[in-house]
Structures are given as C-alpha cells and as structure tokens.
Specification:
heterodimer, A: 314 residues, Immunoglobulin-like, 3-stranded mixed beta sheet, 8 helices, B: 552 residues, Cytochrome C Oxidase, Chain A, binds copper (II) ion, transport (chain A), membrane (chain A), cytochrome-c oxidase (chain A)
C-alpha cells in the first residue's frame, strides 16, 4: 500500500463543486458551534449557580415564559430557513439538470471494481479514471450488480450507482493531479477494497492518453510473449477479460488492453508491478478475499509467461 | 387522603394464582406488568452483551490498517448483527421495559389493559431475537447491514440463510413491539386514575402515548418490506430485483419510511424520562409542559415526512430533495428546542447532582452534538459529502447512545430504587458515569473526523492513510473503556441489589404516583389513590399535607 498523492478530505476541495460545498460546510460549522457552545455554556452556568444548598427552600415554581418560548422557536426557525435557502441555492448550482449532454465518461460499478468507458471513443479501461482538468465534464454513473457509490471527497458530492438506473454528476476539476476516493455504499465482501483513483490531466495530455488508449493491444510477436498470450486464451482468462485486438472479449473482469499503462490494479489497492500481478493471478483470493476471479493453479513458468505478456500491454 | 376507585382489569389473572416462592416458574408464567417490565430489561441486557461483543470484535479488527483479524465475511455479519441487535433487541426492549413497568404506576392503574397480551408480546419478541441469532448456527448471520439494501439482500448476493432469519426474526420482534404499543395506548386512554385528564398526565406517559402511536404506524411498512423480501428470496418473486423488473429503490423507501420514525421511537421515551428527572432533581415543574408535549406530537407527525433524507445520494432529483430538506430541517426545530426547555427547567432550581441527573445533563451536550450533525444531513449538499461515511457512524451513535441511551441511563438510576427497593451507591454510580462518558466520546467523536477525511462506513479494513491509524486506534481504546464501564454497571447493579441501603417509598422527594407506593411495589399496585390536581400528583399531595399541618 502507498501514501495518497493528496490529502483526502472534504476540507481540501479540488473542484468547482468541492469549493461550493466547502463554503456551505464552513457556514454550518460556524452556526452549529454557536449553538453547541451556547448549550454547554448555559449548562455550566446553571450547574454552578443553581446547585442545591443544604436546607434550600423549594425554588420558585416557574411553569413557563411565553417570550422565552417564542424565542426558542423563532431563532432556530430563522436559522434553519437561512440554511434551507443556502441548500437550495447550492444544490441548483452543483447539480444543474442534464439535457441529453453526452457524458465524457461512463463509470460502471461492479463487485468490486470500476469499469470506465468513454462514450464516442473505443476506450475502455478499469479503475483508474483519466479526466481533463479545468473543464466541466459530465460523469455517467451506473452499476451492474449491486448498489455502489461514487465518492471522491475533494470533488464534493457523492452519487449512488444503482443497477437499472442512470445517474449523472457534473465535475470540473481545478488542476491536474491524482485524486483518491472510495466506493461509499456497502456493496458486499470487498466494499473496503473498492477505491477510486482519478487522474486529472491537462487537456493536451488527456487527448494524448485517449488516442493511445483507443488503440488495440500490441500483437504478441516476440517469442517471449507468444506463450503468455496463448495461455491467456487457453486458461479461459479471455472469457472474462477483454484485450482489444485479440480474441479476448470477456466482460466480466476489467479490460486489460493497456493494463501495463496503469499505475495500480485491483481498484487502486495494489501497485501494478510484475510481482503483484504474479501474486494475484497465482491466488486471487489471497490478495482480495472473495474476489470474482477464480484460482487457476497454473505452473510457475506459465504464470511467469502470462505476467510477462500482461506486462507488455502498454 | 381521598380514596379513589382504582381501575384494574376485572378478571383474575394467572399470576395471582401462582405464589411468589415458585421462583423461575413464576417469572416465566407471569402476567404482572412489573415483572414483565423487568424481564424486558433483562432481555435488553442479554442482547446488549451480544451486540457489545460484536462491537468489540469490530473495533479490534479496525484498530490497525490492513488487519486480518476477521475475514470480510465475518466482519459483515458482525456489523449487521451489531446494528440490528442494538436497535431492535436492546433499545426497544429497554424502552418497552420501562414503559410497561412505569406507565401503569404513573397513571394509577394496577396493570396494563391486556396483561396476557403483554406477556405474549415479550416472549414473541424474545423468540424473534433468538431466531435471529440462530442464523449463526444455520450457515451464517445476515450480512447486508441493518438496513439491508436491495439487491445486496437478494439470494444472488447473499447466499446463506441469514437474511431469511433477519426477515422472520424482525417480523416476530415487530409483532411483539406493536402488541405492547397497542396495550399501552389502551391502558393510557382507559385506565387513568379518576381526575387525571390528559393535561394532567406526567410527561413520560405522554411521550409513551405518542411513541406507541408512532410504533403502530411505523412498523407496517417494515413488515411489508420484510415479507416482500422473504418472498423474493424464497419464492423468486421480483419486488426488489432490478434484473427481473423489480426496484431496489422501493426497498429503500419502505425501509426508511419505517426507519426514520424508528429513530424518534427510540428517542421520545428518553425525552419523557429526562423530563421527569430534570423536574425532580431541580425541584421545579417542567418548563413549558404544553410545549414539551406539543413538540412531541409535532415530531411524531413530521417523522413520517422526512425519510428521504436517508436517500439524498440516490439521485431522486432536486424537487424531491427540496421538500425533504425542508421537512427534515423543520423537525430539527421542535427537537432542538426541547433542549432549551430542559435548561429552562433547571434554571432557578435547586439542583441535586445525582448520577441520574448527571446523565440527564450530559445528555444535553451529547444529544446536541448528535442533533446538530443530524441537521447537517438535512442540508442536502453536506449530506452528499458525508452520507455513508464514518461521519454518519459518529452521528448515529451520538443520537442512539448520547441521546437515547443516556436518557435510559438517567431513567435506570432514577427508578432503580423503586424497582429493587435498594439504593445505588452514588460514589460507584459516578465512577460509572465518568468512565462511560469518557469512553463514549473517545470512541465516537473522532469518527466525525474520519468521515471528513474520506473513510466510508462498513469497511472491514482501511489503507494506512495519514491520520487513519491513530484515529482508529483511539476509537478502539474508547470502545474498550465503554465495555469496561458496562461491566462496572452490572457489578454496581448487582451489588446494590444485594447490600444496598433500603430505598423507602420516596427516596428522591419525587412528583409522580409510582413513588407513593412501596419499593418494590406490591403485586397489586394501589389500593387507594390521591386526588389528581396536576401532572405532579404526588407533590400536590405532599404540599397539601404540609399546608394542612401548618393550617392547624
Ligand atoms: Cu462498491
């Protein structure tokens, strides 16, 4: 495991919506601290002032006070009205209604990884989500099995991904960088290991990345790779995984066309190194218990060939 | 003392035919509301131990990052059972226990309206709870969380029979809870002492009356949802399964249209207890009686119009959200304002800081924290940030523990002398209080920050991100302190029962009718009743006696 690139916190906003929500948070913290301190202050004052003394007479039996009661309803009512106004305003600004705009990216939650595709292109990838910085983009959020939830704290709102429904979210990331989050709706055994990694790039780099990733995979011509490619087909990996440009066109697991160009595997929980690939394919359950990929009991040399092949998919 | 007709069920009941020395058999066959009340409290303690062990295992697993102490499968079962247990099998029975014990005593009745149904409700609830726990032996406990979202609750994603037990167990618990609530409603409406109009009802009884209506109205959607889910899982119907035309969202609507009122169901009785406790230990009447009662009714009505604030991240659209944001903020007003009513009750009083009073005062702070973080969730954009994060875990524990449980603790220390006939040592009580308060805040306050820093709830482990490790460790230590304090509590209760000082009828110089009778009360609560002039009937009686003496 590795340290995140940036402080993950709702108080470290990195997008337009992130900032809007941040300001609302601050207003709320001020108002609620005021109320909390008022209650604590009154309580301490009362406790010190009205402590019973021996042989106290029964205190005056005050039953109510109309003015104080009116204030007790009136002031909180005004406070919540103010926050209601801010709520509506922020809501409208953050989530304007969509009118059939084409989303930049579709993110599909699965147990327990993210399929990422870019409408209008042939790019399909997994887990690491590349987006342009400084540009307003629309995310299309869906799920294939159970409910998942999109949450990158620095970007502001989270949004559920619900099987059978489509949700949208607007996002304008401030600047290039790597941002982290996690699936935020309990989704079964590996809910914990369903982390999100967004790679925001300059417009230019993003376009370059898109073109690179639209390409089909390098054909294995090198003799050291042919063996691995063959095992990939034979061991039924191809039934679950897609490698564009080859016969592998499964849709159960992540697209591996450009696997080697990703920094992490397994929903951002493990670094993408040959050792980790080896360990994972050798025994998927050991690294991610419950994972929807079976163990194949491959020979060491087959495994090595497989990993060499996968590692060549730049 | 004027003698008043005592309302009581006419028929003779089985309990009177079994003499007291028959021990266990007598407890099992009892239909006496006091014994059933105590059985409810014992049931609550039993499940508190189970739910508490689950909580400790959870905290051990989370004490360090990337921990393998529990498997994800086990962890998911434990957090599901922890939540379900605490809500349905600990808080609810504790509340029902105090209600069936004290409502008749506070309104001058000799029992509930339907004593046999009272016993039935208890035992069927206990049976439901046992069935739920039996799932551990039957292949696996439920593992989709206490609110058990579709489609994760479908057979395709949760193969063990745990969720089937969840459905059946909770249906049975629900039958018991609704049964007792109907019983309480009828009792309060028909069996009040002569002259005790609704305006002269003690606040606790008012809250229980409101609460019972709330229960009767809130449980049907849950029962419907549970039955539909059971059909989905057993007979392959398609209510919640989107692949065959069902809707997972319908589950959420049904569950939360029960689940949100449930939150108030667990807090209103504590509001009632606090109202009694603040009066007695401040030696003053409640500040704004009609306001306290009125806001209780307002809360109960509004409680049915706010459930979507549990679903602000579902994508239902801004129009729906605006309405539910407004209603949720609105309910914050009567809830929050009660805090100031209690402060008003203490103001100018002559305060006695007993353990019970300390819990009541601590409640004001803890519940305000939980209430304010609750208002945060009514503000839709803040909800978008923080829902389903550890911030929610912190919030709900501040409401359930800092709110409901602190209230019940105040009630326990207030009424223990009445129920047992013995006083609790104040010194030990205060030890417990401080240990509990420190442990509780240590466990849960830091979880607000964890949520702000992006830790989702219901994770069996987490990466070693900056701050996560020490914050989780702190929370775990707090959890152990809390458990320790509970052991101390059980010791205190046991010891006081054995060697505590005799309590006498009225150790606190209290205001309501239960303190006019012996501690513990006889099988037949009342043979005569004072005239009722106000909601502080016993105080009126004591005042009159004093004045008569002076007048002579
Ligand atoms: Cu997920």
């Amino acid at each position: 495991m590795f340290k995140p690139v940036m402080d993950i916190s709702i108080f470290n906003p990195q997008s337009e919506s992130g900032w809007r929500l941040y300001h609302l948070d601050i207003y709320f913290i001020i108002a609620s601290s005021f109320i909390l301190l008022l209650v604590i202050g009154l309580l301490i004052y009362i406790a010190l002032k009205f402590r019973a003394k021996p042989n106290d007479a029964e205190p005056k039996q005050i039953k109510n006070n109309k003015l104080i009661e009116a204030l007790m309803i009136g002031i909180p009512f005004i406070m919540v009205s103010f926050f209601f106004y801010l709520t509506i305003k922020t809501m409208k600004e953050t989530e304007p209604i969509t009118h059939n705009e084409t989303p930049t990216v579709e993110i599909n939650g699965r147990q327990w990884w993210w399929q990422v595709s870019y409408p209008g292109t042939s790019v399909v990838t997994a887990n690491e989500i590349h987006l342009p910085a400084n540009k307003k983009v629309l995310l299309k959020l869906t799920a294939s099995d159970v409910i998942h939830d999109w949450w990158v704290p620095s970007f502001g709102p989270k949004m559920d991904m619900i099987p059978g429904l489509v949700n949208y979210l607007w996002l304008k990331i401030d600047k290039p960088g790597i941002y982290e989050g996690a699936c935020s709706e309990f989704c079964g055994k590996q809910h914990s290991k369903m982390r999100i990694r967004v790679i925001a790039q300059t417009q230019e780099n993003y376009q370059k990345w898109l073109t690179e990733n639209a390409k089909t995979a390098n054909i294995a011509i090198d003799s050291s790779l042919i063996k691995g490619a063959a095992i990939f087909q034979k061991a039924s990996c191809a039934g679950c995984h897609q490698i564009r440009g080859t016969m592998a066109n499964g849709n159960v697991g992540p697209d591996l066309t450009h696997l080697a160009s990703r920094q992490t595997i397994l929903s951002g929980t493990v670094k993408n190194t040959t050792e980790n690939l080896y360990r994972f394919i050798d025994n998927p359950n050991k690294i991610k218990p419950g994972v929807n990929m079976p163990r194949f009991f491959l020979q060491q040399d087959s495994l090595k060939a497989l990993v060499t092949y996968l590692h060549s998919l730049k | 003392m004027e003698t008043v007709n005592v309302p009581e069920p006419e028929e003779s009941l089985p309990s009177t035919s079994i003499s007291n020395d028959q021990g266990l058999l007598q407890w099992i066959s009892t239909v006496d509301h006091k014994q059933i009340g105590i059985l409810y409290l014992l049931m609550s303690v039993l499940f508190l131990l189970l739910g508490g062990v689950a909580a400790l295992l959870i905290r051990v697993q989370l004490s360090v990052p990337n921990n393998n102490f529990l498997s994800p499968e086990m962890y998911n079962q434990l957090f599901t059972m922890h939540g379900t247990t605490m809500v349905f099998l600990v808080m609810t029975p504790a509340i029902l226990g105090f209600s069936v014990y004290f409502v008749p005593l506070m309104i001058g009745a000799n029992d509930l309206a339907f004593p046999r149904m009272n016993a039935f409700s208890l035992w069927i609830g206990l049976f439901g709870g046992m069935l739920l726990y039996f799932s551990f032996l039957a292949g696996g406990a439920p593992d989709a969380g206490w609110f058990n979202y579709a489609p994760l609750n479908q057979r395709a994603y949760s193969q063990s029979s745990g969720i089937d037990y969840y459905c059946i167990g909770l249906l049975l618990v629900g039958i018991g809870t609704v049964g007792t609530s109907i019983n309480l409603i009828v009792t309060i409406i028909y069996y009040r002492a002569k002259g005790m109009s609704l305006r002269k009802l003690p606040v606790f009884v008012w809250m229980i009356l409101i609460n019972s209506f709330l229960i009767v109205a809130a449980f049907p959607p849950l029962n419907a949802a549970l039955s539909m889910l059971l059909l989905d899982r057993q007979l392959q119907t398609h209510f919640f399964n989107n692949t065959s035309g069902g809707s997972p969202i319908v589950w959420q609507h049904l569950f939360w249209s029960f689940g949100h009122p449930e939150v108030y169901i667990l807090i209103l009785p504590s509001f009632g207890i606090l109202s009694e406790v603040f009066q007695v230990y401040s030696r003053k009447p409640i500040f704004g009686y009609s306001f306290i009662v009125g806001s209780g009714i307002a809360i109960a009505l509004l409680a049915f119009g706010v459930w979507v604030h549990h679903m602000f991240a579902v994508g239902l659209g801004l129009t729906v959200y605006s309405y539910f944001a407004a209603s949720s903020m609105l309910i914050g007003v009567p809830t929050g304002v009660k805090v100031f009513n209690w402060l008003g009750t203490m103001w100018g009083g002559s305060l006695r800081f007993t353990t019970s009073m300390l819990f009541a005062m601590a409640f004001l702070v803890e519940f305000t924290i939980g209430g304010l973080s609750g208002v945060a969730f009514a503000i839709v954009p803040i909800d978008w940030q923080l829902t389903d994060s550890y911030f929610v875990v912190a919030h709900l524990h501040y409401v359930f523990v800092g709110g409901s449980l602190f209230g019940l603790m105040a009630g326990l220390f207030y009424w223990y002398p009445k129920m047992s006939g013995k006083m609790i040592s104040e010194k030990l009580g205060k030890w417990f209080f401080w240990l509990f308060v420190i442990g509780f805040n240590m466990t849960f306050f830091i979880q607000h920050i964890l949520g702000i820093k992006g830790m989702p709830r219901r994770v069996y482990t987490y990466p070693d991100l900056p701050g996560y490790t020490w914050m989780n460790m702190l929370s775990t230590i707090g959890g152990f302190l809390m458990s320790l304090s509970f052991l101390l509590l059980f010791y205190i209760l046991h010891k006081s029962y054995k060697i505590g000082k005799p309590a006498g009828n009225d150790p606190w110089d209290a205001y309501t009718l239960e303190w006019t009778v012996s501690s513990p009360p006889k099988i037949r609560n009342f043979t005569e009743l004072p005239p009722i002039y106000s909601y502080r009937a016993f105080r009126d009686l004591k005042e009159n006696a004093k004045n008569n003496k002076h007048g002579k």
